[in-house]
Amino acid sequence: MAENKVRHLGVIMDGNRRWAKKHMFKSVMRGHEKGLDAFMDTCTWCQDEGIPYLTVYAFSTENWERSREEVSSLFNLMGKFFRDEIDTCISRDIRIKVIGDLSRLDAESMETVRKAESMTAHCSNLVVQIAISYGGRDEIVRAIKAYAKKAARGEVDPENLTEKEFENYLDTAGVPDIDLVIRTGGNRRLSNFFPWQTVYSEIWFTDVLWPDFSKADMKAALDYYETIKINKGK
Predict the structure, then answer these.
(1) What is the mean predicted confidence (pLDDT) over 5-34?
(2) Cα–Cα distance measured from residue 232 to residue 234, given in angstroms and rounded to the nearest whole number
(3) pLDDT on residue 12
(4) Residue 194 and residue 198: Cα distance in Å, rounded?
(5) Nearest alpha carbon to residue 45 among 87, 90, 81, 92
(6) Cβ-contact 15, 210 below 8 angstroms
């Protein structure tokens, strides 16, 4: 059997808050800070393995329901990443793309995000999609609305709509579907993580909390993927 190769890795980075509580930190933000280190490490490991696309779940639409204090702290942390780590991304040829319902972000956050995207637009060794204010069903609804507006203006004919054409309206337009999803933290579900793009994905669940995720954990998931027989029915 030919070797399977992951081209697009998706990661649900779960367990930051539980990690902080496990280590008895007063603030759960210590878990999120440690989780950011794990994210940067994962980018390195993807490059080591020759994986050209990485998509991570950073902040879901449901996360807006958390306390105002935690949401504010999370966006401050993300803003710090986009400001402080952007030179590292450029030096390592990592392109940053932020996807999701970004209309909910404040003006300062939007400016920070767009600057990071612009500064790394020329990078090509690894494309990292960071899902912020993202929900899979919300993405599909937004795509439908965008298509419907074009149809209402007579620019497209709904009778000619295909799956391939519809994908152009998704946040991930132009990026291949996700081959393998890794979810840390012990939960065995996808939690609204890219339902369209994961329809044929293999899924690797681990009890390891995200801040403790290691290169050995990632290698175990990749080794599993290489042993399975991929049949997409096409």
Answers:
(1) 96
(2) 5
(3) 98
(4) 6
(5) 92
(6) yes
Active site residues: 14, 63
pLDDT at site 3: 60
Residue 233 has pLDDT above 60, yes or no: no
Cα-based distances in Å from 22 to 28, 29, 30:
10, 13, 11
Chain Cα centroid distance, residue 194: 9
Q: Which two tokens stand for residue 132?
A: 């912020």
**Per DSSP, what are the bridge partners of residue 55?**
10, 129
- The fold of the 8-135+177-227 domain, in CATH, is Undecaprenyl pyrophosphate synthetase (3.40.1180)
Q: Helices 68-84 & 107-119, crossing angle to 10 degrees?
A: 30
Q: Per DSSP, what are the bridge partners of residue 16?
A: none
The domains of the chain are located at 8-135+177-227
- Which two structure tokens, joined as six digits, stand for 155? 């620019």
3-state secondary structure of 58: strand
pLDDT in tens, 160-205: 999 999 999 999 999 999 999 999 999 999 999 999 999 999 999 9
Q: Which two tokens stand for residue 126?
A: 């690894």
- Containing 49, the helix (H) or strand (E) segment is helix 29-49
Q: What would the two tokens of residue 165 be?
A: 């054409």
Q: How far apart are CA 1 and CA 225, in angstroms?
A: 13
pLDDT attached to residue 228: 87
